[in-house]
Amino acid sequence: MDLAAERILSAGTTLADTGLIVSAGTGGLFNSGSLVSSSTTLASGAAIDNQGNIEGTSALTIAAATVFAATEDSSIRAGDAAISADAVDVAGKLAATGLLAVNAGSGGLKSSGTLSGGSIDLVSAGTFANTGLVSGGDTLTIAAAAPFINAAALVSGRDLAI
Fold first, then answer.
1. Domain limits at 77?
2. How far is CA 65 from the centre of its chain?
């Protein structure tokens, strides 16, 4: 299922069996409902603001031109997840059973929620600031070009690289 518009406000439940692609232009994407599929892709020419639930049971891709924000009550679940934006701010739960890859630009990566994955790869061209829980089952890799701030927990079942 493909949904495309200049601005998307999603408050209900959108469920697709085999694939869900949601594309917003410069008006951005705001989700306070549920976006669920086996393979889910969200793209925006501006910000993506998630206050609801997003699920890609096998794969999830999120790409925002400016900011990707997930509020405290939000939940994101995936098999493998790839998230990219100039700034990433996660206050809710972001969980991947496989690889969780987050790539933040100069706006940095801020986590006050829970990031978990079988393996986690976090890259930030700006500040990395963690006041939540970051937990990688196998590996946890963090690369930050600017200040690295950890005021909470970084956990890895095997390998930890900063």
1. 2-161
2. 13
